[in-house]
Specification:
- There is one protein chain.
- About 30% of the residues lie in helices and about 25% in strands.
- The chain contains 18 helices and 28 strands.
- The longest helix has 17 residues, at about 80-95.
- The radius of gyration is 24 Å and the shape is globular.
- The structure holds adenosine monophosphate.
């Protein structure tokens, strides 16, 4: 099969008329203000209100907003009306605890109903909600809560015991910890409050907070090459992008059953696992369990999923499980599949078409953009391997950076450069928490510089080339090498550490660490295993290295920085490139 072949679309491919059909005209007609009118109400401009109460006077009040699935349990439905009531209760709980607009509320839980209620209730209360991935270890959790000066944490009794309790004193800003009992009952853990009891006595009346479009709403931590994680700040009006991209990129229609497989601990699971589908009043499937090919096909079939938003790693894991597994299932309801987070190889796009009956539509965005920017959508041809074209309301370009900090737009098609976006879309991040300098450096004039290398072809399709920095994308999750290196350095045997992303056919990149040892320590298999266990305990399974190599010393620049680039080149047997800055080098 030719991976460069184009997948042509005709109206015969549409199961319903797509929302986005005339590329040029829709982009020209598009106006963010027109979207704004749909979403504001008595709570001002508030994501929590627009996602829930906005439907109360409509026929959607009684419709299922979320269907929660968990192994061995019957599905749990929550209607829009119920979600509105529960989120009001939680907003009142926060109010009683003294939270005011701007208070930072962290959530750390598996995909359980209380997580969704907490996020939306927090937003209704005007709080800034920050999600933590439940597979993080104690260190990434504490680092983020401290950076965000979190005052409230909502988590489960089990996660608290394993990942927070022992480290509680290291988080001085944390005033209230609310625990959800794993067994559905009540908790009685010293120094914490019981979520269920607080909810039971809270009022269902609207909390009476009104927020403005530019009020802070969400804090998403993301990783850079160096330093601590960066808190990307998003405002209430980000929901304009969530609505518009739900409409154009995910093609949501009112009768859809939508399944976003991303965890709300990451930006995709927040923007598209929670906000966008609710803004469109559709039914979302939330599965608590981890990936399992049979389970996932079963969900697509039994839940009659119509629109499915997933990730390249998941698609590759399904491919690995074999087409015969897929063939035991039928997906007559499924009409659109999209994916995000890492490069989607052309084979995966074709695999979707052949095995599931629908190609996978790649799209591109990042934590900082808050929502989908570039996408393949139902009506338009797909060039497998391309991320698609900019959506209405988004202006993209390929640019070259100059030494004076300015950029120039590269108009010649198929030329590599940095992917840039014209500032002004509503879900653009408004800053990195406490790091104005780093934020400023992301912009050149009107252009936001994404840190990704890409090309645009003559038809306006964008092609991902690579990252400009050393961050690692593993199973779609962005991992900062510095955070991993710091955890390794805390082990008494480690003198220096360098961490890279090693290409992996399934998860994209796998975290690999290189360390050298302090005097008196010997390289051994037992020590290697101990270091892996140490990192896993501190960082959690999602971030910890999967491989570790012990070297006599690590390559450093003359200024003392570990050369990850060189470690990677050596690991992959690639040319070492310019080593003139290597310590002791030429
Ligand atoms: P995050 O902020 O964790 O969402 O990561 C964003 C980064 O993931 C982007 O800057 C890209 O490097 C990568 N990424 C996201 N979507 C795609 C895609 N469709 N193709 C290639 N890389 C992607």
């Amino acid at each position: 099969m030719e991976s460069t072949a184009i997948i042509r679309k005709t109206p015969a491919d549409w199961r319903v008329p797509p929302n986005f059909r005339d590329y040029a005209a829709e982009r020209q007609r598009f106006d963010w203000h027109a979207v704004a009118g749909r979403l504001s109400g008595p709570a001002g401009f508030n994501i929590g209100w627009a996602a829930t109460d906005r439907w109360l006077e409509s026929d959607r009040a009684g419709k299922t907003a979320f269907r929660f699935l968990a192994a061995g349990q019957p599905p749990k439905e929550m209607t829009y009306a119920e979600l509105a009531r529960q989120t009001n209760r939680f907003a009142n709980v926060l109010r009683q605890l003294g939270c005011t607009p701007g208070t930072v509320v962290f959530v750390l839980a598996e995909r359980i109903p209380e997580l969704y209620v907490s996020v939306l209730g927090g937003l209704k209360c005007g709080c800034v909600v920050s999600p933590l991935f439940s597979a993080f270890g104690p260190e990434p959790i504490a680092t983020r809560i401290n950076l965000g000066a979190g005052r409230v944490l909502v988590t489960t009794d089990l996660l608290y015991e394993r990942k927070v309790a022992q480290w509680r004193e290291t988080m001085p800003t944390l005033e209230h910890v609310l625990l959800v009992a794993a067994d559905g009952g009540q908790t009685a853990v010293p120094g914490t409050l019981d979520f269920a009891s607080l909810m039971a006595t809270a009022s269902e009346a609207a909390v009476g907070v009104s927020t403005a479009p530019e009020d802070l709403a969400l804090l998403h931590f993301t990783s850079g090459t160096t330093g601590t994680p960066k808190g990307a700040m998003h405002v209430q009006e980000a929901m304009l992008t969530h609505w518009a991209t739900g409409y154009y990129a995910l093609d949501l229609h009112v009768d859809d059953v939508f399944w976003c497989t991303a965890d709300p601990g990451w930006v995709t699971g927040m923007s598209y696992g929670i906000i966008a589908p609710l803004l469109h009043g559709v039914t979302s499937i939330i599965d608590r369990e981890e990936f399992d090919a049979e389970r996932w096909y079963g969900i697509l079939q039994e839940q009659h999923v119509t629109v499915w938003y997933t990730a390249p790693t998941a698609v590759r894991m399904l491919m690995k499980a074999g087409a015969e597994v897929a063939q035991r299932y039928r997906f007559p309801a499924l009409r659109f599949i999209a994916s995000v987070g890492e490069p989607l190889n052309p084979e995966a796009v074709w695999w979707g078409k052949e095995v599931l009956g629908l190609p996978i539509h790649d799209n591109w965005w990042q934590t900082e953009t808050g929502g989908i920017m570039i996408a393949n959508t139902p009506a338009f041809d797909i060039k497998p391997g391309s991320m698609g074209r900019p959506l209405p309301g988004v202006e993209a370009a390929i640019v070259a950076r100059h030494e004076d900090g300015s950029v120039s737009v590269i108009d010649t098609p198929n030329t590599e450069g940095e992917l840039a976006l014209k500032r002004g879309w509503p879900s653009m991040f408004r800053g990195y928490l406490n790091n104005e300098e780093r934020y400023r450096k992301c912009f050149a004039g009107d252009w936001y510089l994404t840190g990704d290398l890409a090309k645009r072809d003559a038809d306006g399709y964008y092609w991902f080339v690579g990252r400009l920095d050393d961050v690692i994308k593993s199973a779609g999750h962005l991992i900062g090498p510095f955070e991993v290196e710091s955890a390794l350095m805390e082990h008494p045997a480690v003198a220096e550490a360098g961490v890279i992303g090693k290409p992996d056919p399934v998860v994209g990149e796998m975290v690999k660490a290189f360390v050298s040892l302090k005097k008196g320590w010997e390289d051994s298999e037992a020590l290697r295993r101990e270091l892996l266990a140490h990192a896993r305990k501190k960082l959690g399974a999602a971030v910890a290295p999967k491989e570790i190599a012990i070297l006599p010393s690590l390559p450093r620049t003359r200024s003392g920085k570990i050369m990850r680039r060189l470690l990677k080149a050596r690991e992959l047997g690639l040319p070492e490139g310019d080593t003139s800055t290597l310590e002791g080098g030429a």
